[in-house]
Specification:
CATH topology: Transcription Regulator spoIIAA
Helix content: 40-55%
Number of helices: 4
Structural class: alpha/beta
Largest sheet: 7 strands, mixed
Radius of gyration: 14 Å
Distance between the termini: 28 Å
CATH class: Alpha Beta
Strand order of the largest sheet: 1-2-3-4-5-6-7
Strand content: 15-25%
CATH architecture: 2-Layer Sandwich
Order of helices and strands: EEEHEHEHEHE
CATH superfamily: STAS domain
Shape: globular
Length: 131
């Protein structure tokens, strides 16, 4: 599954979305639609949005992160965000964008551990800080 340079992969019950840097606004919108279609097609329970390659964030991209997270939740899937860089976090906070009910972790390793615990219904202490 590819929308331009966006990579969406199904791993177990997880839909892994590797978000590249330098997406145009149109590519961002297409990526969101591709993610929602992939959730429906695969019945994914957990969506991991990996932003480790993204090092800057404008208000449009911040709204994309927020909006996509909400849309994924409305489709019944849980959201994990990984790899947010400092500048992206600063921009989101300055714009007042919090992500309640979204787990965020530092890297993909932590995200995979958390996704497995979410799927099994177990809780891992200290893992997955709520936005």
């Amino acid at each position: 599954m590819n929308s331009g340079s966006v990579n969406i992969q199904k791993l177990e019950n997880l839909l892994l979305v590797a978000v590249p840097r330098d997406l145009t606004d149109d590519e961002v919108i297409h990526m969101r639609r591709d993610v929602l279609r992939a959730i429906r097609r695969n019945g994914s329970q957990v969506v991991l949005l990996d932003f480790s390659q993204v090092d800057i964030c404008d208000s449009f991209f911040g709204r994309f992160i927020y909006g996509t997270s909400k849309m994924v939740q409305l489709m019944g899937a849980k959201v994990i965000i990984s790899g947010l860089q400092d500048a992206v976090i600063e921009t989101m906070v300055e714009l007042g964008m919090t992500l309640p009910d979204v787990d965020s972790v530092l890297d993909l390793d932590d995200a995979l551990v958390l996704s497995r615990s979410l799927a099994s219904g177990t809780c891992i202490s200290g893992m997955g800080q709520r936005g």
